[in-house]
Write a structure and sequence with these properties.
By secondary structure, the chain is α/β, with parallel strands linked by helices. 33% of the residues lie in helices and 28% in strands. It is built from eleven helices and 16 strands. Strands 13-12-11-14-15-16 form a six-stranded mixed beta sheet, with helices on both faces. Strands 3, 4, 6, 7 and 8 form a five-stranded antiparallel beta sheet that branches. Strands 1-2-5 form a three-stranded antiparallel beta sheet, with no helix packed on it. Strand 14, helix 9 and strand 15 form a beta-alpha-beta unit. Helix 2 packs antiparallel against helix 3 and helix 6 runs antiparallel to helix 7. It is elongated and about 105 Å long. 26% of the residues are buried.
Length: 418
């Protein structure tokens, strides 16, 4: 008796493995139809009952064995994507994915459901399908239009198929990880006369040392391979046993710092903030092409300050920091301009990108001039405002550069018409 119960339990477990998960009522329905055809054959007999029983048995077996023998649970895939060197907001991204299904069991179609997650806007689902060829392979291809600035990641891919009667659905999932970044939309700036004077001031500096050394000694440091022999400090080297070099005070040269207003109440909508980010990205690319040290000040929920440095690699890093900026700042721009780190950039150009125009902001811009900084206001305006002309006259009296920008396409003309 014990042996009989043991065998029956094993048989039940095997049947459960063959049954599609979460589709119990359909499985019961198939079993009822098969039992009905069997009873019809036993009690009625004849060729019609026999043929009907054979057909129902074949269909039922196919449906119940499809999940186990279809190969959908061992499906494999590979993404084929030709990422351009740079994706910007508003672009489209074309992707192709190939699939291979092991096994031999006939499959009519495969449904594919892919999840693409944006760091800010959440998950978007893309559905597609393909019919496997003779080699049980297939592919899907689609384009993702109107990309948003930020980071995208493909999450789990869900694959499913059905039987001949489309009663049962069998699912599986696989990981085909892929991530890509979408940078802010930019425009090419041909010329900015106001920045030309800053470029002349640093054209003699190198890409690695953008500050001129004075003859005044500041301390002693370890010798670095490639240093001139004339700067070796022989006395310190003899005392320590290691080569030491003299450190000289460096003469400060004009740099450029870009400040984006991230105060949540400053902007009318998301589009206006995107204009601020795109303006900053376009200016960074212009400054990089002219080999000028550039930095970035992002006073968002977490205040981030990147001091001005030269080099293409550093400017690329600044652009990556613009991927995830948002208007989540809790400090108004007037208070941001009181940050003590600005005092360390004497003689530098500070580009303030904000839609604000108030008396308190005017006072802060005046304060920047008092600490030997050169403020420049890029004013973001979505429409003509009556106080714009008054604001422009105020800044001109203080010799503070003012550039009203209403769209990204107008930026080169506004800056070039300096």
């Amino acid at each position: 008796m014990f042996r009989k119960d043991w065998r029956s339990d094993v048989m039940l477990q095997a049947i459960k493995q063959l049954m599609p998960k979460d589709q119990g009522p359909l499985v019961c329905g198939v079993i009822i139809v098969w039992v009905s055809s069997l009873l019809y054959l036993l009690f009625s007999g004849g060729k019609l009952a026999f043929i009907l029983f054979v057909i129902i048995t074949m269909i039922s077996t196919y449906q119940l064995l499809l999940a186990k023998c279809s190969g959908i649970h061992t499906i494999t895939g590979d993404r084929i994507s030709k990422l351009p060197k740079r994706l910007e907001a508003g672009d489209f991204y074309h992707i192709k994915t190939t699939f291979r299904i092991p096994g031999f069991w006939p499959i009519l179609y495969v449904l594919i459901k892919e999840r693409l997650t944006h760091h800010k806007f959440g998950t978007q689902i893309y559905e597609s399908s393909f019919v496997p060829n003779f080699y049980r392979c297939g592919d899907i291809a689609y384009s993702i239009p109107n990309l948003k600035r930020g980071s995208y990641t493909f999450e789990e891919t869900e694959c499913s198929t059905g039987d001949l009667l489309n009663l049962f659905e069998h699912k599986s999932s696989l990981q085909l990880p892929l991530s890509f970044n979408v940078y802010p939309r930019t425009v090419h700036i041909d010329n900015w006369p106001y920045v030309s004077s800053f470029r002349k001031a640093i054209r003699q500096t190198s890409a690695s040392k953008y500050q001129k050394e004075t003859i005044e000694m500041d301390g002693i440091r370890d010798y670095v391979h490639g240093d001139r022999l004339s700067i070796i400090h022989w006395n310190a080297s003899a005392k320590t046993g290691d080569l030491k070099a003299k450190e000289f005070i460096r003469e400060s040269v004009p740099n450029i710092l870009i400040l984006i207003d991230q105060y949540y109440a400053s902007y009318h909508d998301e589009e206006q903030f995107e204009l601020a980010v795109s303006t900053a990205a376009s200016i960074i690319r212009y400054i990089r092409n002219h080999q000028i040290p550039v930095g970035l000040f992002l006073p968002g929920k977490q205040i981030r300050f990147y001091e001005p440095r030269p080099g293409v690699t550093y400017s690329h890093r600044l652009e990556e920091h613009l991927l995830h900026v948002d208007k989540n700042g809790e400090i108004p721009i007037e208070e941001v301009l009181l940050n003590q780190k600005l005092k360390q950039l004497q003689g530098s150009l500070v580009i303030v990108i904000t839609p604000e125009a108030s008396d308190s902001l005017f006072q802060r811009l005046q304060g920047l001039k008092k600490i030997q900084l050169h403020p420049c206001h890029i004013f973001l305006s979505s429409k003509d405002m009556p106080e714009t002309e008054l604001w422009e006259n105020q800044l001109k009296k203080e010799r503070i550069r003012y550039y009203p920008v209403r769209s990204l396409e107008a930026l080169p003309a506004v800056l070039g018409g300096d």
